[in-house]
Specification:
There is one protein chain. This protein is of the alpha+beta class and 667 residues long. The longest helix is centred in the N-terminal third of the chain and has 35 residues. The chain has five domains: 32 residues; 151 residues; 100 residues, Chitinase A, domain 3, CATH 3.10.50; 102 residues, Chitinase A, domain 3 (Roll), CATH 3.10.50; 159 residues, no CATH class. The two termini are 66 Å apart. The strands form five sheets. It has a four-stranded antiparallel beta sheet, sandwiched between helices. Strands 12-4-14-13 form a four-stranded antiparallel beta sheet. It is built from 23 helices and 18 strands.
Length: 667
């Protein structure tokens, strides 16, 4: 009973506790059930004009462009710089696509399926397609048949897994360029539409002609700001703050960081050079005499021996004269050469023969239409296809194993034979050993321990003769720091670190980097201190302008002004409304405007210009020699002057687009 009474006495508290427990349970269940909603939000790489870019869309676009790079370059071993380029290109393409779509939707503009077909395979194929090497013949001319053949091929299926993989890659390649054509043509249509808005009419033409023809002479006296000592004027803090407020819109920024870093080069030591030289000396006799050259080379060399045929264009430059000299024969061998931190020697395996540089192939398809594949160099083909292709004759056929089956090819055409040579190259680049690598890494580590903040880092670097390299305005999406390779991790660290903090060691290519954050800017606008120098300069010039104007108070003639300022009266032969420069004074639009607004022989009040203070006197009319007015010619000149505006409009559309960029979370 006592227990029951205690429960009654604390009933309100228990109800509250149970209520909170139930609320926690309900919220937990809601959050768990709604986790997919929150996760979807976190998985958005960005939002462009209301269009959410999901991570999977972004990744698919990157993979697509990566495949295009592989096909176009014939490579698959890309470094971080190329992948950075791919990421940026994908984002830029999405920006252009979605911003243009939004604009096109508002005005009812679109690209029809027929238009796109005409641009891709019609009579007026777009330059993007025409310029692809894949669709060009051996003479570099666009081949519409090559496009048609590709489109027919990618819509087929094969029982061979490898062939299907190749067809999938080809389809990916085509889909990318088809999309690129659509976006490019959308931009062309939009800019063409804008160009009709920026046309000159007859009144514009006459106005431009008159502005160029009608002019006046002028005289002036000026006092440059630099001629007034800074000590003669005072600039207050309120002056600077007032200017900051006036210019604040110009200082809008995205969150950014400034850092400085010290680099420790990862270079081979003397011991590393000696070890490589010793190894080459020990191998050279074996390399000269062995019957199994491929074993010796492929076991010890940085350049594998695969029996490739070198031409004068493809052979390493240091061996060109040796390999293609008169009388060169199999078995000839060079001495050990040292160049670009590499010890190397070459041995001729075969010489005195010629082979074509390229072949045109056709794939033979049983129970189907044969596929013309185009022209290939040996390096563009797998070895098992290249060897019979380049050893065969025009019209000959050969069959190779592919996947679970076989594929037959026909040699349609053979390029002109050129001299070739087979070389075995024994090369050893001198690289830092693990011992050298560790020693340099430890040096960088010790530098961090001894210098735990930015101020200490700067002082120690100066003492040790190390360069301190500043980098400003790093944003969350900055791909790399300056020219440092693989330096994206430094950017990520900078946005997690505090001002003055020193980093751990970063490995960037052949350098160890130690960085320090020198400035953190997370505000919407650049802070006053960041722009104080330029504001102080402007405020000082404003103060100097007032100082000069006071000197000229009551002065009514140019001669008197010249005497007061210690300057001379200068002449401008002709001033027109089209001018941007005022005589020898440079860009002074306010002075030009004032001259043209005066009456003849009228003297102006002191005018503050860009470089100093001016007093001007308008002279007599000084028109250009009479020339016939040609409306068509004037309109053409104006059209040329306006031609950049549509493209600038596209850039403005992208700059002003409603964009949320979360890429930093996925890089």
């Amino acid at each position: 009973m006592a227990s029951l009474q205690r429960i009654r006495n604390h009933g309100a508290l228990l109800i509250a506790i149970v209520g909170l427990a139930m609320l926690a349970f309900i919220l937990g269940d809601f959050l768990n059930s709604g986790s997919s909603f929150f996760n979807r939000s976190r998985e958005n790489v960005g939002v462009i004009e209301g269009q959410k870019i999901h991570y999977t869309e972004y990744e698919a676009a990157k993979e697509q462009l990566t495949e295009v790079y592989k096909i176009e370059s014939g490579r698959s071993d890309f470094d971080e710089e190329v992948y950075t380029q791919i990421r940026n290109q994908v984002w830029n393409m999405m920006m252009m696509d979605y911003t243009l779509r939004a604009q096109a939707k508002e005005i009812g503009m679109d690209i029809t399926a027929d238009e796109l077909s005409e641009l891709c395979i019609g009579d007026n194929v777009h330059q993007i397609i025409r310029s692809r090497r894949t669709f060009q013949d051996e003479n570099g001319q666009f081949s519409r048949d090559a496009v048609v053949n590709l489109l027919q091929a990618i819509n087929q299926e094969s029982d061979d897994a490898e062939m299907n993989a190749n067809l999938k890659q080809a389809k990916t390649y085509w889909m990318y360029w088809e999309k690129a054509v659509r976006i490019s043509y959308m931009q062309e249509k939009y800019t063409s539409l804008l160009q009709h808005l920026f046309k000159a009419n007859s009144l514009d033409a006459e106005f431009a002609f008159n502005n160029r023809q009608n002019g006046v002479s002028a005289e002036y006296v000026s006092q440059p700001f630099y001629a007034v000592a800074d000590s003669l004027v005072k600039v207050s803090e309120s002056d600077i703050k007032k200017l900051y407020k006036q210019h604040k819109a110009e200082y809008k920024q995205t969150p950014n960081r400034s850092i400085e870093y010290v680099a420790f080069d990862i270079k081979p030591s003397e011991a590393d050079f000696k070890a490589a030289e010793t190894l080459m000396n020990n191998l050279q006799e074996e390399f000269r005499t062995t019957e199994d050259v491929s074993l010796t080379v492929n076991t010890n060399s940085d350049i594998m021996y695969d029996g490739r045929d070198y031409s004068e264009e493809t052979v390493p430059a240091q061996f060109k004269e040796f390999a293609f000299r008169k009388g060169a024969k199999a078995g000839d061998c060079t001495d050990i050469l040292f160049e670009n931190d590499t010890y190397a020697m070459a041995r001729i395996m075969q010489a005195g023969y010629s082979l074509p540089d390229s072949v045109e192939l056709k794939a033979i398809v049983e129970d189907g239409e044969d596929q013309e594949l185009g022209w290939f160099k040996a390096a563009d083909l797998p070895k098992n296809i290249a060897e019979p292709a380049f050893a065969g004759k025009r019209g000959g056929r050969f069959t190779v194993a592919q996947g679970m089956g076989e594929q037959t090819y026909e040699i349609m055409e053979i390029g002109k034979p050129t001299p070739k040579v087979k070389l075995a190259i024994l090369a050893r680049e001198v690289t830092p050993s693990s011992k050298t690598y560790s020693a340099i890494y430890n040096q960088a580590k010790q530098f961090i321990v001894a210098n735990p903040n930015a101020e200490a880092l700067e002082a120690a670097a100066q003492e040790q003769g190390l360069a301190v390299v500043p980098q400003y305005n790093l944003t969350e999406t900055t791909d790399k720091v300056g020219q440092l390779k693989a330096s994206r991790p430094i950017v990520r660290w900078a946005f997690e670190a505090k001002e003055g903090q020193v980093s751990d060691v970063f490995e960037c290519g052949q350098q160890f980097i130690v960085a320090a954050v020198t400035e953190v800017n997370d505000g919407e606008y650049r802070p006053l201190e960041a722009v104080r120098a330029e504001l102080t300069y402007e405020a000082t010039n404003n103060a100097k302008a007032e100082y000069i104007k006071k000197q000229l108070k009551g002065v009514e003639t140019l001669e008197a002004a010249a005497e007061v300022l210690g300057q001379r009266v200068q002449n401008v032969e002709r001033v027109t409304l089209n001018d941007s420069r005022f005589g020898n004074a440079g860009m002074e639009p306010a002075v030009i405007g004032k001259v043209l607004a005066l009456d003849e022989n009228e003297v102006s009040e002191p005018i503050q210009g860009k470089t100093g203070v001016f007093m001007v006197k308008k002279g007599a009319i000084n028109n250009a020699p009479e020339a016939p007015f040609n409306a068509d010619s004037e309109k053409a000149q104006l059209a040329s002057r306006y031609s950049y505006l549509p493209y600038q409009a596209i850039q403005i559309i992208e700059d002003k687009a409603d964009v949320v960029d979360n890429r930093a979370n996925f890089q």
